[in-house]
């Protein structure tokens, strides 16, 4: 069927996405708060939103574009920000992981990953034909990863590569990346850090961790539109990951010639000055998250993950809210709808017994309103 009239997107219209009505809400969504755009990034988005706009002055290599200054971003600003030698843009952290897997391993090789890894780590490894061995966590309620647990698995399986999720997207746990980097060097195993929820939020340096690679998610944690990611590496790996095509010598094979080349790149450029400043205030973010955890636990809502918590992404469980929801017509949607009435956005529909939030973008005053909302819901419906 040919479309002959323009689409009109209305909230609730069948087959069309709803208009975003949460702009003026308190946002505690764990996937959104680190990627929210400021005025400078919104201006860049408007200027470069039409498809391949940044390719106007491309001479065949994305990383050498001078207008807009992609070259400066990838060859100077980002390597300094990530503490690495070389950076390439990707269309997301998962693509960066796949590129490393594909370049460094062969089908049938073994890799070690932490049990808190993102699902895309597993999918990227499956796509590469790898054997995946998980390093266990400590289990309920903290689910900690002790990086020393990698050692017996290294000795048993002789992996081609190791990956650490820093932090994980389930509990916001931050394992000791520096200690694992030292372990990786001692055993001669390359180490990849998945920094999708760290790069752009807190200070992260590939050099300080001792790892070989780091991937980032610019649309989750670096105040830019997506999909967009980064892959940082040590210089020793350039010959492996940046190998070029024999027929098209300006095109890097693992990156299929070019990767992200749209509005996301210029929004990241616009956001970089703010990102450099905001990672310096990470201690305040941690203090805010810890305060929020304490106040929520006073309501009988238990924080999961390591304590004292060290990240803005926080998992909670509340059997009490779940019991309340079972007596309500909305069931699992009860909490989502009650918070929505109070202009609080971020709890996923269907989650009541366990749910995740992020305190990153909200002020203490806004988080106090969230705490008050939970208190009111418990007292009103208990």
Short recap of the structure:
The protein contains 14 helices and twelve strands. It has helices spanning 39-47, 70-82, 93-104, 119-128, 150-157, 177-187, 206-209, 218-221, 238-241, 263-278, 282-297, 319-326, 334-341, 364-381; strands at residues 26-27, 86-90, 110-114, 131-135, 161-165, 191-194, 213-217, 229-233, 302-304, 313-317, 344-345, 354-358.
Q: How do the strands line up in the largest sheet?
A: 2-8-7-6-5-3-4
Strand content range:
5-15%
For the terminal residues, how far apart are their CA atoms?
52 Å
CATH architecture of the largest domain: 3-Layer(aba) Sandwich
In the CATH hierarchy, what is the superfamily of the largest domain? Type I PLP-dependent aspartate aminotransferase-like (Major domain)
CATH fold assignment of the largest domain: Aspartate Aminotransferase, domain 2
Low-confidence stretches: none
- What's the number of extended β-strand segments? 12
Structural class: alpha/beta
Number of domains: 2
Give the topology string: H per helix, E per strand: EHHEHEHEHEHEHEHEHHHEEHHEEH
Task: Write down the overall mean pLDDT.
Answer: 92
Largest sheet: 7 strands, mixed
Q: Helix segment count?
A: 14
Shape: globular
Tell me the Rg in angstroms: 22 Å
Quick one: CATH class of the largest domain?
A: Alpha Beta
Helicity range: 25-40%
Explained architecture:
The protein has 382 residues and is of the alpha/beta class. It has 2 domains: 26-38 and 281-381, Aspartate Aminotransferase, domain 1 (Alpha-Beta Complex); 40-277, Type I PLP-dependent aspartate aminotransferase-like (Major domain) (Aspartate Aminotransferase, domain 2), CATH 3.40.640.10. 37% of the residues lie in helices and 13% in strands. The chain has 14 helices and 12 strands. A 7-stranded mixed β-sheet has the order 2-8-7-6-5-3-4, with helices on both faces. The protein has a 3-stranded antiparallel β-sheet with strand order 9-10-12, covered by helices on one side. α4 (119-128) links the parallel β3 (110-114) and β4. The mean pLDDT is 92.
């Amino acid at each position: 069927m040919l479309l002959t009239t323009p689409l009109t997107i209305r909230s609730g219209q069948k087959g069309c996405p709803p208009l975003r009505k949460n702009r003026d809400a308190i946002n505690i969504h764990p996937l959104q708060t680190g990627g929210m755009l400021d005025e400078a990034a919104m201006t860049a988005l408007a200027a470069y939103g039409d498809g391949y706009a940044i390719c106007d002055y491309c001479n065949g290599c994305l990383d050498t574009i001078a207008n807009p200054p992609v070259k400066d971003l990838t060859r100077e600003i980002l390597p300094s920000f990530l503490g690495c030698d070389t950076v390439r843009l990707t269309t997301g952290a998962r693509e960066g992981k796949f590129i490393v897997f594909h370049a460094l391993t062969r089908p049938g090789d073994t890799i070690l990953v932490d049990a808190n890894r993102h699902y895309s780590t597993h999918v990227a490894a499956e796509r590469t034909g790898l054997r995946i061995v998980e390093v266990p966590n400590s289990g309920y309620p903290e689910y900690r990863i002790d990086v020393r647990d990698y050692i017996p698995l290294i000795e048993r399986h002789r992996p081609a590569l190791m990956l650490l999720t820093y932090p994980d997207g389930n509990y916001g746990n931050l394992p000791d990346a520096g200690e694992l980097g030292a372990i990786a060097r001692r055993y001669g195993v390359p180490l990849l850090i998945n920094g999708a929820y760290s790069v752009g939020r807190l200070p992260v340096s590939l050099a300080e961790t001792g790892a070989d690679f780091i991937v980032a998610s610019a649309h989750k944690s670096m105040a830019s539109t997506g999909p967009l990611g980064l892959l940082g590496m040590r210089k020793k790996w350039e010959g492996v990951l940046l190998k070029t095509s024999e027929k098209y010598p300006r095109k890097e094979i693992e990156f299929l010639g070019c990767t992200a080349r749209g509005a996301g790149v210029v929004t990241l450029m616009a956001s970089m000055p703010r990102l450099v400043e905001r990672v310096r205030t990470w201690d305040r973010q941690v203090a805010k998250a810890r305060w929020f955890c304490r106040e929520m636990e006073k309501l009988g809502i238990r924080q999961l993950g390591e304590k004292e918590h060290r990240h803005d992404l926080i998992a909670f469980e509340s059997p009490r809210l779940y019991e309340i929801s079972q007596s309500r017509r909305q069931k699992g949607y009860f909490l989502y709808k009650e918070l929505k009435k109070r202009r609080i956005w971020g709890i996923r529909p269907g989650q009541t017994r366990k749910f995740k939030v992020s305190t990153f973008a909200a002020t203490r005053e806004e988080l106090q309103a969230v705490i008050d909302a939970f208190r009111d819901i418990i007292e009103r419906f208990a």
